[in-house]
Amino acid sequence: MTESGPPDVPTPENESVDSPVVDEPEITPLTEPVEGVPPVLSTPAEFADAGARLAAGEGPIALDTERASGFRYSGRAYLIQIRRRGTGSLLIDPIDHPDALGPVIEALDGPQWVLHAADQDLPCLRELGFVCADLFDTELGGRLLGIPRVNLAAMVAHHLGLGLAKGHGAADWSRRPLPDDWLNYAALDVEVLVELRDAVAAELVATGKDTWAEQEFDHVRIKPDPAPRVDRWRRTSSLHTVKSTRALAAVRELWTAREEIAVARDIAPGRVLPDSAIVAAALAAPRTVDDLTALPVFGGHRQRRQARRWLDALERARRLPDSELPPRSAGGVGLPAVNRWAGRNPEAAQRLSAARTGLAETSERVGTPVENLLQPDLLRQICWDGVAEPVTIEAIDDRLAKGGARPWQRDLCAPLLLTAFTEPPEVEPASEA
């Protein structure tokens, strides 16, 4: 653990009473790209030309992707937006010729990428073969700076005084051809992203948080994609209303059947069959097509065509022996709810309470949200497990490092965790009867 402390961030105690009030800049609407909306590139020849243009540019490269979440099962990129000084903006459609993206991939391997909320875009870019060697995440930078609203439009307004035209982020980007107003929206997402990066980088340096940001950006850049959840069917909405294990099995079988259809057709599962219909069928336990189609949703034309498939799923659940029915709760997965700690592990509850108090105080002092100071899951796990006696700052630092905490987080959090682990909580004196 290094000896560096947190940056000297002004607080109400040390801030000058004569500090000037800084007004928000006047917002200038940015409704279309200055150079116009670029054409959509979709052929190998166009990709080769784009790679050459990007290689001839200079400085960081702004990137964004558009996916079709809520419409498609996959998280693939249906449009890639790129902008670089000296190159201008590029809109790339990777769908028909993903294997021909080599020149663009090569041009992007090395320069710094500038993304907003990079963890949303990196997986689909990696899927296409893109390699990020250096990352700057403007949203994450905003979080470290304690900016209250870190969506792209808010940050562009705050730092650059520009108002982005928004409105199509949740659209079905798998649609072809893409409407002109959607392409305008997409191009604007990278229009001033490099300029936003410059403004955020300067503020990070001014607040002494540039090293923090470098470590955070590197962590996001190299961390693997999350492993698939176990028993994903348990995330079905309103599952808590299903009480019997037989009905839970019906939910599981219907969910699995829906998943198979969604994967095969690349359709978002909720568009195949909504969660509400799965729960309703599991509770009603219909045995015939007429019974099934009498339920909400299942009477529609699409669901009538799949009726036999849904009934087969329900029949599989009905035939399961009791020994193969799912338990009412997942059990044994993760930690118990925090509100149960006091009864199950009172020492852990005390550690967590003290640690949260320390983190809140530190968050206020350095101007960075608590959840960015230390991952909440890691905090809970350390407080639950404890540290072998004798508790030392080195042991806590080692535990934080093994849990993935970055050096700057360990510098801030190890001392306050040591206090939480070693100092008994203050006890209110008992009132006299």
TrEMBL record:
Highest taxon listed in the record's lineage: Bacteria
Span list, region Disordered: 1-39
PROSITE patterns reported in the protein's UniProt record: HRDC
Pfam families: DNA_pol_A_exo1, DNA_pol_A_exoN, HRDC
All residue ranges annotated as the HRDC domain in the record: 244-324
InterPro entries per UniProt: 3'-5'_exonuclease_dom, Exo_C, HRDC-like_sf, HRDC_dom, HRDC_dom_sf, RNase_D-like, RNaseH-like_sf, RNaseH_sf
Identification of the protein by name: Ribonuclease D
